[in-house]
Design goal:
Four copies of one chain form a homotetramer. By secondary structure, chain A is α/β, with parallel strands linked by helices. The first copy, chain A, contains twelve helices and 13 strands. The first copy, chain A, has two domains: 124 residues, NAD(P)-binding Rossmann-like Domain (Rossmann fold), CATH 3.40.50.720; 164 residues, Dihydrodipicolinate Reductase, domain 2 (2-Layer Sandwich), CATH 3.30.360. The first copy, chain A, has a seven-stranded mixed sheet. In chain A, strands 2-1-3-4-6-5 form a six-stranded parallel sheet, sandwiched between helices.
Chain lengths: 345, 345, 345, 345
Amino acid sequence: MIKVGIVGGTGYTGVELLRILATHPEVEVAMITSRSEAGQPVADMYPNLRGYYDLAFTEPDEATLAQCDLVFFATPHGVAMRMVPGLIAAGTRVVDLSADFRIRDLDVWAKWYGMPHESAEWAGRAVYGLPEVFREQIREAQLVANPGCYPTAVQLGFLPLLESGLVNPAHLVADAKSGASGAGRQGKIGMLHGEIGESFKAYGASGHRHLPEIRQGLELAAGGRVGVTFVPHLLPMIRGIEATLYAEVRDPVSFDTLQGLFEKRYANEPFVDVMPFGAHPETRSVRGANHCRMALHRQEDSPVIIVSSVIDNLVKGAAGQAVQNMNIMFGLEETAGLAAPALLP
Amino acid sequence: MIKVGIVGGTGYTGVELLRILATHPEVEVAMITSRSEAGQPVADMYPNLRGYYDLAFTEPDEATLAQCDLVFFATPHGVAMRMVPGLIAAGTRVVDLSADFRIRDLDVWAKWYGMPHESAEWAGRAVYGLPEVFREQIREAQLVANPGCYPTAVQLGFLPLLESGLVNPAHLVADAKSGASGAGRQGKIGMLHGEIGESFKAYGASGHRHLPEIRQGLELAAGGRVGVTFVPHLLPMIRGIEATLYAEVRDPVSFDTLQGLFEKRYANEPFVDVMPFGAHPETRSVRGANHCRMALHRQEDSPVIIVSSVIDNLVKGAAGQAVQNMNIMFGLEETAGLAAPALLP
Amino acid sequence: MIKVGIVGGTGYTGVELLRILATHPEVEVAMITSRSEAGQPVADMYPNLRGYYDLAFTEPDEATLAQCDLVFFATPHGVAMRMVPGLIAAGTRVVDLSADFRIRDLDVWAKWYGMPHESAEWAGRAVYGLPEVFREQIREAQLVANPGCYPTAVQLGFLPLLESGLVNPAHLVADAKSGASGAGRQGKIGMLHGEIGESFKAYGASGHRHLPEIRQGLELAAGGRVGVTFVPHLLPMIRGIEATLYAEVRDPVSFDTLQGLFEKRYANEPFVDVMPFGAHPETRSVRGANHCRMALHRQEDSPVIIVSSVIDNLVKGAAGQAVQNMNIMFGLEETAGLAAPALLP
Amino acid sequence: MIKVGIVGGTGYTGVELLRILATHPEVEVAMITSRSEAGQPVADMYPNLRGYYDLAFTEPDEATLAQCDLVFFATPHGVAMRMVPGLIAAGTRVVDLSADFRIRDLDVWAKWYGMPHESAEWAGRAVYGLPEVFREQIREAQLVANPGCYPTAVQLGFLPLLESGLVNPAHLVADAKSGASGAGRQGKIGMLHGEIGESFKAYGASGHRHLPEIRQGLELAAGGRVGVTFVPHLLPMIRGIEATLYAEVRDPVSFDTLQGLFEKRYANEPFVDVMPFGAHPETRSVRGANHCRMALHRQEDSPVIIVSSVIDNLVKGAAGQAVQNMNIMFGLEETAGLAAPALLP
């Protein structure tokens, strides 16, 4: 059994890790930390876990964490970058679900996250945990930077187009929509049911923290500069991200070519489902599951390729992808703990 | 592997059976029937099942069904009562999720379901599939009548009070609320999102089909006549039933006695969770899971015991309980296929 | 024009007052106070009011408030009881939407609200603002205690039964459900969309602050002690309360008698709609409107009368009823500013 | 009083017309037709209208309709084009909320609506009912073609950019999202609460009927061909459209210039609200109201102008704009019947 610790377990990402790991055949959760809730049994805070865990939240304690085979960080940004170097030095491997190690350019990181980065060494050595791109590096990684939710949906949808060079990388648009759980579990007025229910809006349209992460990934795929506009929106629901992606082909290309390109790119991916040309993926088709489903569209006489890509922001967009990364790191079946279908309806 | 057939698989109960059985370690779904959708792959109708099933819907064919070890009926009432006798004669066992075999008094059945019953023999031999009451009989049953969703939540909440004789059975009130999936997947205007979203109402308040089923179960528990008022309500959400139950104690009784009564009654039940006195069970704490959670309340200077009981109407209220019954019938681990925690948030 | 001030205008009750008063033909809102938002234009916080108000929130200032003809208090409990005596002494009339003056027995008030009452004089002189009972007293009142949301729905539904003596007052049950806006606009984790959406639960089942207010009103109607059990529930929606009420008739009584009783009781009430026997009122049928709709039910062979009563908790349950009371106090058309139908769908 | 008839009143657009006209000071609804519901009182179908209308649905009868000053068509496409010529000949004016007269090119119309057009004459003479563009022509119009919901939100957002020539018209993207009421009130499985709730998806991404209407309007504004990609999405809520619009500026332009351009364009429009640069309009800020609110955004170092535009699809996107058009046609105050603020929360 792999001995796992979770730092910062009171948020939605933390409870989602616990939910997934509850039935993982090869994992034992040894420790879950929370400064604010230390002493409280996790099943008191999350009654869906009654009968699954006797564990209580504890104060974060590096010595105990260091005895884990793997530590997940489900903390706000700025925490992992301080604790990770010590844990790795003590022999623990880490999957960081926060943003601390996702951005290579630390000036960019500092600008968007409002503080200087404190671990340039590990920012350089972290592997970006998108298995569809970095699977081999993840196997050996000491530290995996688990991707953001929007970046996962957007990158997976754009990758085949950019890697193939079929589209012009200068005019990409990613219009993305997320359920409210993406904002975390904090007592903010703007996230009340009375504020979000039965309403819809864009937010961060002048610039969102996930934009540099998206650009970094797309530029790697394109092998050069990309021009991408990313606008997130808030959905009156809990789980799910849909990203509608727009790109212009350089030269005329047939439906079959495009569809074939995507199917081939993801043929061996256990969690990416390319639906038939013209399908419309629904977020509920991935609710609670680690899948990303996508489909292609094109409008008459138009050079624009449209990709609709859906994930569950808490699963493939966070905790599920983290477990997928753990499975890869420890040589387990990649789908272990992640085998159940989505909850529909 | 147990070979399973599903009759009437296009509704929410059918897809829920498929979702649960997709990861059941001992079951192979051999056949799923639908007259209207014959020929269509199930994963085309329910994209959450893409990658899990190659199966397509087929016309119902008794000869093929008879080769199954177990057949689930997820049909409207009136179908199972015609097909079941032949299937059982051919050696197949049956779990009927419809209402055909739940009511002992066939005059009552005929009145509420608007047609004469066509299988008095099997109505008499069917075992009512509430494992918390009839586990031993279910083991040997040829035919299990899977309980209704409301009756499951209401009976489990009232049972300890009635079995113990602590309350007056003449003045019971069951105020129950259900998500919209309980009404099935049919194109009715009254079930449109535009009609149900952001609104709430009672329905069937002058009499609902689940009332005689509830009364039958409560009278068995009480050992005599009960007076029960049952009012269902429609919630602007998809899954979940909450029943708030009101009963008056005959004599003063302490909190501890009441709590102990419930805890003892369900101590060995894998799917009934008695929460601490004063807790408020949330439907989300059982979403997608086969649990029933309940808690007790009492108001100052009042003889009224209040029980709040929650289930997922599609799981413990339908497909999950059906799989639990199958597990019992075939000597499997009772929790097989039903081990995952609820999806929260 | 009546010059109106609002104390505590940043919550949902405050914005609802502004929404209703925006088109009231006889009212000018002269002042709206908020300590925390002083200086901010109300239309910045509530963009639905852009173009309707130039007003900004100001620090509460008794001298300016005293120049108003009427002051609404939309404050947490404990504020109005301190400010009201001074304002009335200065000649201003008051409608208090908080709980400060609703309960006659100040020991009961102190127990449920956790502080001693500071204005016994005005607690005794306040008129309870349920126009269907106290219309004449409201006309002359200096101070109106606007009823709570649940108490409005529950009292209106029970009143004809208790006033007529048709039912046994010892065994009343009020099972009530409210949208999330009833909890106000504060950054509490428990009211996040991620916590409330797609879920349902009882709360306060062992005792809720609205219970003594309900009991006080029902006892007045019954002319003696009543035994009432009241359980509130939280709905995954924003606006609307439904209360399902249960009472037992003393002697057999016909449908027509019951229906006639209710129709006669409310024949001249502009905001109470008795629907035909057996109808099921929906909360959306009163969304944004000041109406209370109700209907009666009875189940076969049962002595229990069931009343389903719906209101919009922010309108008839708060701001709308407050404006109705103001209209009565100032001799205006009772429906002024409250004439628009509900927003359906 | 203007005597008004409504053809096809059972859908959401029909009830919304009734809701708005219920408090319109200058209008009397003389007739509302429905073949399927003839004889039923409108208040039985829509209980929010109890007490407002004694009217019942009637069979459509051209002779009676011809006695109205104005007839609204709230019918599926194909109905108005057959009835309108006769009504106009009889002296009645018409506002058609269906798509019959919106498209100038009747071959395009026939292709998207699947039938030949039957009134080329009136297709040529109809005035497109977007008051912000065609107010003067609407005053004198016999027939107004009321715009579609998406086209209203999209055109109002793009107009200032295209009219000014600031952006390149070849690469426009309109990513639009609508509440479920836009799909009407028909018993389709795909519009059930169980299918739509808690989920999100694109639809019609390969081509939607509103695309040619949008293109026609944008080309008129641009004075030439435009390349526009339009993808609609379905929101798990009832009312509201948000359109996020993307366009590239030809030459560098300052924030102030852009903001000033929009503010000047809509300075005298009673129902278009240009919010401050960087605001994020919420659909709830226009719920039940005839406003369109919009705001501009730009991301660092990007030539892309982002416009977020929100309307209530049933009001400014249908019935409200129809009443606005009626007000203009009859020389009434343009805001008559449309003066109330949006319902928030």
